[in-house]
């Protein structure tokens, strides 16, 4: 059993541990020849600063956690997300979600996403978006139950990323007045 609540600064250590477990999960489900292009995960101190600084307008993300009822000090899952804005107006982007293996299949995943959807609608958002690695078959099956639009397939919308070296190359061409 679990309860859902907003994340707190003191959750950061457990969150970083779950980020590592998330990476391990992805690596275990990927094809052996998968190209890994991600940077290392954020550290506890950076996460605390980025998500829980005193000045709320400076916070870079929002988070809900699933907390064990039997052991309230223990988190069993998280979802983190942030506001997104497009020419269609307000939305949210779900960056990452994880439920510990021993708690899967008990409704925590849906409860975490429901909390984001509820908050987003309260904030006037009309779109809830995320990405998922195609080889992550379990999560794909879980998400498909929510009947989302597959924007890669239906809108042919491809997600790109520049990591820091390519960002620096591009930024060198900036000419702002
Ligand atoms: C994906 C994940 C968050 C789902 O969390 P969960 O707590 O197990 O999901 P729930 O218990 O809320 O399940 C909701 C529904 O999805 C279904 N479902 C969950 N996992 C599934 C799976 N692997 N295959 C098929 N269906 C699945 C459940 O049966 C349930 O269906 P129902 O509504 O008909 O009863 C969890 O499996 C996880 O953390 N996976 C590893 C990390 C990961 O891949 N995260 C997502 C990255 S994009």
UniProtKB/TrEMBL annotation:
A GO molecular-function annotation: N-acetyltransferase activity
The cross-references to Pfam families, in alphabetical order and at most eight, read: Acetyltransf_1
Question: What organism does the UniProt record list as the source?
Answer: Medioppia subpectinata
Q: Which InterPro entries match?
A: Acyl_CoA_acyltransferase (IPR016181), Diverse_Substrate_AcTransf (IPR051016), GNAT_dom (IPR000182)
**Assigned protein family:** Belongs to the acetyltransferase family.
Q: What is this protein called?
A: N-acetyltransferase domain-containing protein
Q: Which UniProt key words apply to this protein?
A: Acyltransferase, Transferase
What CDD domains does the annotation carry? NAT_SF
N-acetyltransferase domain span: 2-165
- UniProt cross-references to SUPFAM superfamilies, sorted A to Z: Acyl-CoA N-acyltransferases (Nat) (SSF55729)
């Amino acid at each position: 059993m679990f309860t859902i609540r907003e994340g707190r600064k003191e959750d950061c250590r457990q969150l970083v541990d779950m980020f590592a477990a998330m990476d391990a999960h992805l690596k275990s489900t990927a094809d052996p020849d998968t190209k890994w292009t991600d940077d290392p995960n954020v550290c506890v101190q950076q996460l605390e600063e980025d998500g829980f600084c005193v000045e709320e307008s400076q916070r870079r993300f929002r988070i809900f956690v699933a907390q064990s009822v039997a052991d309230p000090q223990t988190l069993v899952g998280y979802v983190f997300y942030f506001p997104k804005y497009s020419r269609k107006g307000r939305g949210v982007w779900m960056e990452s979600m994880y439920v510990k293996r021993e708690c899967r299949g008990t409704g925590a995943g849906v409860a975490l996403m429901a909390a984001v959807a509820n908050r987003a609608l309260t904030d006037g958002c009309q779109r809830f978006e995320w990405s998922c690695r195609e080889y992550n078959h379990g999560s794909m099956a879980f998400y498909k139950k929510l009947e989302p639009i597959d924007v890669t397939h239906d809108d042919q919308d491809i997600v790109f990323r520049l990591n820091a070296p390519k960002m620096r190359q591009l930024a060198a061409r900036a000419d702002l007045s």
